[in-house]
Amino acid sequence: MDGSSCSSKRDSRNYNVDFLFIVEAAVEKRIHFPDGIDVYFDNVGGKMLEAVLNNYANYGARIALCGMISEYNKVWTERGGVRNLLNMVGKEVMTKGFMVGSYYNHFEEFIKKMEDHLKEGKIKSKHKIYKSVDSFLESLACLFSSSNVGKVILQVTP
């Protein structure tokens, strides 16, 4: 992928990957997780977390909270709260927030395992490359617009 635009894109299945489209389509059709979710890693928050709690979190599900990018650029008084936390009680969902820095003591072990997973094809990376420093502002904007899928890379040398 080149860095031509951060507008809506299509993935390998030809789905529109615009953030709100995914949330609405997933809620309406249950197309992404027909059997529900047992473990969910959330770094988006907002409507995505609400959709998971309303429609997909199975009884006893576990949710790891590592960020809420949908709320980062808002003043704290304008941040939306998750309106359906009561669903966590009825389904006995467990959540735990964490900061990556708390786990630096596991970094070497992680690198070794991740290298093996990448070599074996168990993990595949999606990324978008912006070429040249002139693309800096566009690449930065994509990080906070929910329009990118995967990593955003700014390539400054050929």
Question: Secondary structure elements and their pairing?
Answer:
Elements (H helix, E strand, L loop, with lengths): L18 H11 L7 E6 L3 H11 E9 L20 H5 L3 E4 L9 H13 L7 E5 L4 H8 L7 E5 L3
Parallel strand pairs: 1-2, 2-3, 4-5
Helix pairs in contact: 1-2
Architecture overview:
This protein has 158 residues and is of the alpha/beta class. The protein has five helices and five strands. It has helices at 19-29, 46-56, 86-90, 107-119, 136-143; strands at residues 37-42, 57-65, 94-97, 127-131, 151-155. Strands 1-2-3 form a three-stranded parallel β-sheet, covered by helices on one side. Helix 2 (46-56) links the parallel strand 1 (37-42) and strand 2 (57-65). Helix 1 packs parallel to helix 2 (46-56). It is globular and about 55 Å long. Residues 1-8 and 13-20 have low confidence and may be disordered.
Number of helices: 5
SSE-based structural type = alpha/beta
- Average pLDDT for all residues: 79
Write down the oligomeric state. Answer: single chain
For the biggest sheet, the summary is: 3 strands, parallel
Shape: globular
Strand content: 15-25%
**Strand element count:** 5
Radius of gyration: 18 Å
Helix percent reads 25-40%
Low-confidence stretches: 1-8, 13-20
* Topology order in helix (H) and strand (E) letters: HEHEHEHEHE
Termini gap: 15 Å
Order the strands across the largest sheet as they lie in space: 1-2-3
Notable traits:
158 residues, alpha/beta, two-stranded parallel sheet, 30% helix, disordered N terminus
Describe the structure concisely.
The chain has 158 residues and is α/β, with parallel strands linked by helices.
